[in-house]
């Protein structure tokens, strides 16, 4: 992915570095009517739902089911660059770009496939509709502040498990 959000730099106190190969995952969806707003294109919240679906796929792939109950979002940055329309096929991809001692940053992008848009316009296939980053912190059950990631988590994310 060519966006700066997908490359990212490692946060201070980082375990991973920008050269570390981290896993990525994608999901494909169709823009449903419920995903659109009054202007007829995707609602801003649909992007993050698709990104979260790709995030779920990523952590299933890494066999880390304990990630979700202990990884609240601490920052989300979304850059909207194109419209997606009802019936259009989209692909959301996430990639871990940095693993800190207590945080994790994923870059993402959502691309739309070519389809007819209102007014006869035809979006270019593979157009990036949105990109950005999501940062989570490790707050295990019972903790009130971020804690270091468990060793099994670090190994799985770094591909050394």
Write a brief structural summary:
The protein is built from three helices and five strands, in the order αβαββββα. The protein is an alpha+beta fold and 161 residues long. Strands 1-3-4-5-2 form a five-stranded antiparallel β-sheet.
Explain what you see.
There is one protein chain. With 161 residues, this protein is of the alpha+beta class. The protein has helices spanning 4-7, 44-61, 151-158, and strands spanning 24-30, 73-80, 89-99, 103-112, 127-137. It has a 5-stranded antiparallel sheet. The longest helix has 18 residues, at 44-61. It is elongated and about 45 Å long.
Helix coverage percent: 10-25%
Largest sheet: 5 strands, antiparallel
Arrangement of strands in the largest sheet: 1-3-4-5-2
Approximate strand percentage: 25-35%
Our Rg estimate from Cα atoms comes to: 17 Å
Structural class: alpha+beta
Summed over residues and divided by their number, the pLDDT gives a mean of 86
The N- and C-terminal alpha carbons lie at a distance of 25 Å
- Overall shape: it is elongated
